[in-house]
Design goal:
heterotrimer; A alpha/beta; B alpha/beta; C mainly alpha; A: alpha/beta; 13 helices; globular; disordered C terminus; B: alpha/beta; four-stranded antiparallel β-sheet; 11 helices; 12 strands; about 25% strand
Chain lengths: ~325, ~325, ~300
């Protein structure tokens, strides 16, 4: 396998609020390889968005990155000056958000905003800029792109705006595109189109994608590898097939069992994950998931389990799984 | 399951909202269907299709522009004032947004007790007891009745909203959320209209499913049937768009991509409203000229499509 | 699935874990207000002015109307801490009674403004339609007439008593409040909890007074707090022009006007009421700012 393009090492991001220190991201490490699609899933408040913002150093006060390294092509982004970081944002690593309307300037024409995204880094010939902007809008399959560059954001539908955001993200051919819940605000048929677009762009441009979502279906359709986060930590990580067919962390398992499936038998009981996500100011002792876990053993209440190999390329942080893996001398496989 | 007695019968319901300059948003534009006693009818469609407005028409939160809504044989659109208020008790709504649907200045106990007070049903100790019972029914600690909504999580707040809706012991519940529905159905003898955008959730809980597009019901059928054998191309597209949390299945599925965007409900397309985006439409032709009626395409299966035989079956 | 489902948990209440201990939103706002230093200092200052005003009802160092208790234009001295004015009256005593007048005007107008603004604003915002059209038109007409003109006319018509001044100022400043309440009513009536109340059989009066008004109270309080200094200033201005409370009643405005002729000779006659006025206005504005931050629902859902 090629060298990772992005390595996150022991990232800790905390928010210093009046009520205490919120440990939003608490020791997250992972690698991203060139051209791959990596999904980061979890409930709201699990730290997946803050992880993404940390990579681009866009965490707002009172949040601060307090520990870790973020190596992009070998350079630690946390060591860069603000100026160097600004250079890199949008050029090497681009990000798109859930709400494309608030990310676009309502009083500027869409074409101009796409051009601006290009000018921010490359010295593009002014004459070529417009045709390049149109080309980008065509690439994200906006119909009648050459006339729509003159339109304003409010004249676009939600799905079309998200396409514009993707076009702006791709303007400088970044090597990584971080998408934070890009389809959550969209209807399913539009979501399907955007996902298809992202899939094709990944295939054609080899841009690596980090897809942050709470929707397991979105991950299943788009990602090659999956990271499951809970309470600011990675609880499981592995290839998409293993995560879905052979989850090794009770949280992953519960997540999969809690969503109704279009192809499942009707009236199958859904297993909702009872209880609240943990208070990130004073999280529970031991495994952070233990208060909601139906498989917990004594050890879960005392010690925080490390993220260890449980299968080929698959890692999980769970004492129960580990116990069983040791007993059987090989990773548990089941269905 | 259901003994096929219609609890609600909607006849040609229409709701237009004024949109300035004499124009109007045709949110619901001629819809007829029944909800049978004891069943769960799922109502799906994408944002702006009119499903929420239809839910509000049935619960009489919005007056219909025209058409009739019969509840137990009584036409609610003919009632007003105190008479309407008395009948409306039987129809309650559970709202989707757990934040905006609870008054932040009232305690949970007061929120749940309010409907009881409105009808002078219970007073003093008996009222408090009933409130605590309702909290217990929805799985909340009955001694939290003095707390305020912001002290609860989103899921807990949804439960508070459910307790409020149950307080008047309604017969029909129009719900936008899945939470607890299955548990309460039998215990309270409820009939549901479940309004949602996610067909996988709707299918999971509903006996029958109705699909809306631009103010019209385009298909209505048994929920297993509609999934196996959709007879409207929009239903088909909707089904194919919903991601299934299984990478192997996802890899094999083909999404039916819809052309263009949902047209404006101010000026819906002529003929079949879906023809501008339909993969099998004859336009110009019958599809852009004649509106297809919602007609029988099989047992208990109605669809509004001129070429429903061409819609490929199974996902 | 790799993991077998465990033994079913005994039925537990989902609500046994509650997000965070808190009391009502009001208590929460109070907690936030206390953290705001400037607002706290302002509150203490307003409390001090109030205390002075109350004491002066019963006792002042010197009778406020008696002339020549000191030499005219006397400067600051141990007998007359703030000196005396052109008629030899004790300024400190008059300033203290002036605080009474200012607070009465400020609070009095706002009581009228709040009462009338809520009545008119909620009627327009909740019932909409023709009522709203009429009320909005009247509001706009009042905005169009210069407030000084309205106040002058009212004073001419009603006379110059304190109560009449209060009515006159309220008549020129109720529109902001009415418009604010109307906007709140329009927005809140579309909220889902109002729909839910209607579905639960609530009548209009209940919806207005239990659901809409309590949720509009925050902005109303903030607006009224900002309205107090505006009214005080307006009264001072009217008195400065000689159109406010009847002399020799010691309004801060008329005190400043009295001293104006001798500005060079005895600046303290102007400075004392001017300073008292400025500090009081500032205090109310800081308190208003603090209240806005504390009551702003956007900070917390």
């Amino acid at each position: 396998m090629a060298a990772p393009i992005l390595q996150v090492k022991d990232l800790k991001t905390q928010f210093f609020t009046d009520d205490g220190v919120v440990k939003a991201v608490n020791g997250v490490s992972f690698d991203l390889y060139p051209g791959e699609t990596l999904g980061i899933v979890g409930e709201s408040g699990c730290g997946k968005s803050v992880t993404a913002l940390s990579i681009l150093r866009l965490v707002q006060e009172p949040g601060r990155i307090v520990n870790g390294q973020i190596l992009f092509k070998g350079d630690d982004l946390l060591e860069l000056s603000n100026e160097e970081m600004r250079e890199l944002r949008g050029k090497d690593i681009a990000m798109i958000f859930q709400d494309p309307l608030s990310s676009l300037n309502p009083v500027l024409k869409v074409g101009f905003q796409v051009e601006e995204a290009m000018f921010a880094h490359d010295r593009v010939n002014k004459k070529n800029a417009l045709s390049r902007a149109i080309e980008l809008l065509k690439q994200v399959r906006i119909p009648a792109a050459s006339s729509r560059v003159k339109d304003y954001p409010h004249q676009f539908s939600g799905g079309m705006r998200q396409r514009v955001m993707i076009a702006m993200g791709l303007a400088n051919k970044p090597s990584i595109l971080i998408a934070d819940e890009p389809t959550t605000a969209l209807d399913v048929t539009v979501q399907a189109q955007i996902l298809e677009l992202l899939r094709d762009l990944n295939r054609d441009t080899r841009t690596a994608i980090i897809m942050i979502t709470h929707n397991m279906g979105v991950v299943a359709g788009l990602c090659q590898r999956v990271i499951v986060m809970y309470a600011g930590q990675i609880v499981e990580e592995g290839p998409v097939h293993q995560i879905f067919h052979n989850p090794q962390h009770p949280y992953t398992w519960s997540l999969l069992r809690s969503i109704p499936r279009l192809d499942s038998d009707r009236h199958d009981r859904l297993l909702s994950i009872e209880g609240l996500p943990p208070d990130l100011i004073s999280p529970p002792r031991g495994c952070k998931f233990n208060p909601r876990c139906q498989f917990r053993i004594d050890r879960c209440l005392r010690e925080d389990p490390p993220l260890l190999d449980v299968g080929p390329d698959q890692r999980a942080a769970c004492w129960v799984t580990m116990d069983r893996a040791l007993k059987h001398k090989e990773p548990a496989v089941g269905g | 399951m259901a003994d096929r007695v219609p609890l609600v019968r909607v006849e040609n319901a229409v709701k237009y909202f004024p949109a300035g300059l004499g124009a109007s948003v045709k949110a619901v534009d001629g819809v007829s269907f029944e909800i049978y006693t004891g069943e769960t009818l799922g109502l799906v469609g994408e944002s702006g299709c009119g499903k929420s407005t239809l839910g509000r028409l049935i619960t009489q939160l919005h007056p219909a522009t025209s058409g009739n809504i019969f509840f137990e044989g009584i036409d609610l659109t003919k009632l007003s004032g105190e008479k309407l208020r008395q009948h409306r008790r039987q129809l309650q709504m559970i709202f989707q947004d757990p934040y905006s649907s609870l008054n932040p200045r009232m305690t949970v106990g007061d929120i749940i007790a309010e409907p009881l007070e409105n009808f002078g049903m219970l007073r003093g100790k008996a009222k408090d007891k009933r409130v605590q019972e309702l909290l217990k029914v929805v799985g909340l600690n009955p001694y939290f009745n003095n707390r305020y909504p912001h002290e609860f999580s989103g899921g807990q707040r949804q439960r508070i909203g459910i307790a409020r809706a149950l307080a008047l012991r309604p017969k029909l519940i129009v719900s936008q959320i899945l939470n607890l529905m299955q548990d309460l159905r039998n215990e309270f003898n409820l009939t549901y209209l479940f309004v949602a955008h996610d067909l996988s959730v709707v299918r999971h809980i509903s006996d029958r499913v109705a699909v809306m597009y631009l103010g019209k019901i385009v298909e209505i059928a048994d929920s297993v049937e509609i999934y196996r054998n959709p007879r409207h191309p929009y239903t088909k597209a909707l089904l194919s768009s919903i991601p299934i949390p299984d990478p192997d299945i996802q890899a094999q599925r083909r999404v039916v991509s819809l052309a263009g965007e949902i047209p404006s409900p101010v000026n819906p397309p002529s003929g079949c409203r879906f023809h501008t985006r339909c993969p099998i439409a004859r336009a110009p032709g019958i599809c852009s000229e004649t509106e297809p009626p919602l007609e029988e395409k099989g047992r208990e299966h109605r669809a509004a499509c001129h070429f429903s035989a061409e819609v490929p079956a199974a996902v | 699935m790799a993991l077998a489902p465990g033994v079913a948990n005994p039925q537990e209440y989902v609500g046994d874990t509650v997000a965070r201990e808190q009391t009502s939103l009001w208590a929460d706002a109070w907690r936030r207000l206390r953290r705001n230093r400037l607002a706290l200092v302002a509150t203490v200052f307003i409390g001090f002015v109030l205390l002075v005003a109350i004491i002066s009802v019963f006792w002042t160092p010197y009778p406020i109307y008696r002339e020549s208790v000191a030499p005219t234009y006397e400067g600051l001295s141990s007998q007359h801490l703030l000196g005396a004015d052109q008629a030899g009256r004790d300024i400190l005593s008059r300033l203290a009674v002036g605080a009474q007048i200012s607070l009465e005007v400020g609070v009095g107008t706002q009581i009228l403004v709040v009462a009338f603004g809520i009545l008119v604003g909620l009627t327009a915002g909740y019932y909409r339609g023709i009522l709203d059209g009429v009320i909005s038109t009247v509001i706009n007409i009042f905005y169009g007439i210069p407030s000084l003109l309205v106040a002058l006319l009212m004073v001419l018509l009603l006379g110059r008593g304190l109560d009449k001044i209060i009515i006159a100022i309220a008549a020129t400043s109720w529109m902001d409040m009415a418009r604010l309440v109307r906007g709140q009513g329009l927005a809140l009536r579309e909220r889902e909890f109002v729909e839910a109340a209607r579905a639960g059989g609530a009548k209009a009066s209940r919806i207005i007074f239990r659901h809409i008004l309590p949720n509009a109270l925050g902005p109303i309080i903030v607006q009224a707090t900002f309205g107090v200094p505006a009214a005080i200033l307006f009264e001072a201005f009217l008195s400065f022009l000689g159109l406010g409370v009847q002399p020799p009643a010691p309004s801060w405005g008329s005190m400043a006007a009295d001293g104006f002729q001798a500005l060079r000779l005895a600046p303290h006659i102007v400075l004392a009421p001017a300073l008292a006025l400025s500090l009081t206005l500032m205090a109310f504005n800081f308190l208003g700012d603090g209240l806005r931050d504390a009551l702003d629902p956007r900070q917390k859902r």
